[in-house]
Each structure stands twice: as C-alpha cells, then as structure tokens.
Amino acid sequence: MSDPFSVADKVVVITGAGQGIGRSFAKAFASAGAKVVIAERNVDNARAVEREIAAGNGHAKVFETDVADEASVKRLGASVEAAYGRADVLINNAAIFSTLEMRPFDQIPLAEWEQVLRVNVTGPFLCARAMLPLMRKNRWGRIINMASGAVTLGRPNYLHYIASKSALAGMTHSMARELGADGITVNAVLPGATYTEIPRQTVTPEQRERIVATQSIPRPQVPEDLLGVVLFLASDASAFMTGQELTVDGGATHP
Questions:
Q1: Burial level of 213, CB count in 10 A (0-12/13-18/19+)?
Q2: Other Cβ atoms within 10 Å of 78 Cβ, number
Q3: pLDDT tens-digit map of 176-219
Q4: How many CA within 13 A on the CB side of residue 29?
Q5: The whole model's pTM is what?
Q6: Angle 20-31/224-233 helices, nearest 10 degrees?
Q7: Whole-angstrom Cα distance, residue 19 to residue 44?
Q8: Which domains are assigned to the chain?
C-alpha cells in the first residue's frame, strides 16, 4: 500500500521560494522527493535555493516569475508544462509584507495599496488559473494559499496586507467549491508571526516579545513550524479536506 502522506515525484510549484518561508518549503518538498519549481522574481535568490537543494541531492528548477504580471505567469505555466507535463501542487506563497511600513490606513499611499493587492491577491489568482489546466488533465491537484493569522487578529497598521490576505482566504473557499469535482483541493494556511532570515525593520524586540506573549506556545514561530501542515495538504492524506483555513500560530488565536 502506498504512503498517503508521500509527496515523492509530485511537481510542486512554489511562488516566492527564493527566501523566507518559501525557501523552507522548497527545501522540505525536495527532501521529501518532490520535483520543486521555484517561481521567483529574484533570480539570484532562486538560484541560491536551487543550489541548496542540489547539494542535498534534491530536484529543483528555477523559472523567473513576477506573479503580478499576467504574461510572466503564463510563461510559468508553459514552462512547467514543457518541463513536466503536469503540475500537482501550487503553493501561493509570494507576497509583499516584510518591506511594508506600519502606518494608519489613511496614510497608506494609493500606489502602495494597489501594489500589495496586485501581488497578494491578483498573483494567486493568475497562478491558480495558469496551473489549473495542468491539474485538470490528471484530475488531481492541490492549491495551498498562504494567508495570515493576522486576518483573525484584525492587526492594525497593515490594512492593505490584512485586506489582501482576507481576500485570499475568501478566494480559497470559493475556489474549493469550483474545483472539487476536478479532484483538486484548495486550502489556506494562516501562519502567525514567522521569523525568517528576511529582516523586519518595523518590528522592535519589544513588539516581538508581545507577539510571543499572546501565544499558547511561548516561543517565536519559525518556518519549520509550517512544514508539517503544508506537506499534509499537498498529499493524498488530505484528499477529503478542502475549502479550509488552517491556522498555525502557536495558539495566538482560537477562531
């Protein structure tokens, strides 16, 4: 009997996999035997992750991708089809967050508001649309949308980010309804404040301590805390789970 939790040989497309959480996902899936597609705008970062994976005898390919650009995402779809003939898993991870300045919503420049929505909402829409024919062909697919636990907290001073991640959670519910008959599940993961190698200039040590103090598990969250749930959602083991929001935040919220 095959292992329902296995992701071996799955073609896993991860956007924004050149750093942070996406980098951890790419390395974890490669270690589990998946064929990883690093869809990333920063090619230097993407190549560095590709080398890390190759050093561990894993499989990864880099495709330069700007998720906010329709033509770029179409090229991604065509490249994945040419390389593998299918796409099994899409992780919509690319987003604008760490570079955002915390400020009241009435002080957010309109151009910044629109850029965040373009990357964080339109990007996942474009990527799901591009991968859909490759999933429908085999009547099997997993779409995993990386939303945010900050949505349920109603965190202030990041209104464009909160609005975008709320939209992504809503898209998850509706997309799941549309794609269930095609053998494709769609779920969202809502991480808490996750600390990676990406600097966060707007978060002070005091703010970080306050965040940890709200959690039931009183330690900083790291990308490795998300690997189990994402690997599960990408596998056959989660075949009857769709349209769900899974919060992984150390118990900071209990929705």
A1: exposed
A2: 12
A3: 999 999 999 999 999 988 877 766 666 677 878 888 999 999 99
A4: 36
A5: 0.95
A6: 60
A7: 10
A8: 11-248 (3.40.50.720)
d(CA 30, CA 32): 5
Catalytic, out of 84, 158, 161, 195: 161
Active-site residue, 161 included:
yes
How far from each other are the two terminal CA atoms of the chain, in whole angstroms?
37
* pLDDT averaged over every residue in the chain: 95
- What is the spatial distance between Cα 6 and Cα 232, in angstroms, rounded to a whole number? 9
* C-beta separation of 231 from 5 below 8 A: yes
Residues 6+ apart with CB under 8 A from 186: 143, 144, 145, 172, 175, 176, 179, 242, 243
The residue-averaged pLDDT of 23-51 equals 98
pLDDT tens, residue by residue, 145-171: 999 999 988 888 999 999 999 999 999
User: Is residue 54 within 8 Å of residue 65, measured between CB atoms?
Assistant: no
Which of these, 147, 117, 135, 120, lies nearest to 13 by C-alpha position?
135
Within 10 angstroms of residue 211's Cβ, the number of other Cβ atoms is 20
